[in-house]
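Researcher: Here's a chain I'd like modeled. Treat it as a single chain, no partners, no ligands.
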Amino acid sequence: MRRIAVLDAPSNLGLRPPTETSVPGCAKAPGALRDKGLLPKIGARDAGCLTPPRYDPGDWRPGDGVSHAPQIHSYTLRLAERITTIIDAGEFPLVLGGDCSILLGSALAMRRLGEDVGGRLGLVFVDGHSDFRHPGNAPYTGAAAGEDLALVTGRGAPELAGIEGRRPYFRDNDVVVLGIRENDEYRLDLQAAGFSVRPAPVLRAEGASRTAAWAREQLADCAGYWLHIDVDVLDGAIMPAVDAPTPGGIAFAELELLIAGLVNTPDCLGMEVTIFDPDHDPQGNYAALVVETLVAGLKPLWPKIPAPRKAHDSARRAAR
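Model: Modeled as a single isolated chain. C-alpha cells:
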C-alpha cells in the first residue's frame, strides 16, 4: 500500500489575468482544500509546497507566445524533481494545483521515469476542456493552461514542449481524454491525432466506473500512467468556482467513481487536481465538496488502520 504524499503546486502562471488589476485565484486552492481537512482525512503525508515564480505578465499581449514561458519552464523542472522524489520513496503523489500548466511538471517527471524503466507512460486527462490549442490549429498561443495537453504531447514552443530534449512527454496514443464537452473546439483534432476520447455525454451514458475501466484498457501497453483532474470537468451549475465553468459536465458522484476506478491500481503513479478557484467560493462550500469527492475517490489508497485490540478480542470470543 502506497502512502499518499500531498504536494502543493499553487501556480497560476498558466492563466490570463481575470481583470487588469487582479490575478487568477486558483493559486489559493491548495490552502482552501487543506483547510477543509484533506490531508488527515486521507491519511496523507505533507510533502510541502513548491512556491512558484511571481505572477507578472508584464506587457505580454496575445500573439507574443506563451505568457510566463520562462517562469513556467523553471517551475516545470522543479516540480518534476519533487514528483520524482515522492515516487522514488514509494509514495503516491497528490499534487494540488494551481492551474493546468502544472501538468508540464508531472509530464516531464513521467517521461524521465519512463526512460528509467524502459517503458512508455500514459496520461488520463480528465478535464472539461481539451486544452489543445497550439500553433497548428490556432492563430496564436497565449495561456499555457489552455494549451497544456498540446504542450505535453509535443506541440508548441520547445522551451515548454521539449524541455531537456524530451519531446513529446506523452505520445498521442498513450493519452486518454475524459469529460470534455460535446462541442469542444478541438475534439475532432484529438480524434484525428489518435487520442482515446470519451466526452462527458458518453462518459455519463457508459457510467463512470466502466469509463475508468475503459481508460485503463486503452493504456494496457503502458508501464503506468499519470492522472490529471481539472475540476471544471464538473458541470458549471454545481461547480462554478473555476475560471471557465461550462454546462454539460459530470456530477460529483461520477467524478468520485472515476477517480476511484483510476487510482485503484499500481499502474496509476500519481494524480493532480487543478483549476479550483477559492475566489469564487467565499463560504468554502465548494472546497468542502471537492474534498469530500477526493476523500471518497481516493479511498482505495487510504492506509489500512488496524482495529483496536478490544475489537480483535471480541471477534475471537464471537468465533468460539
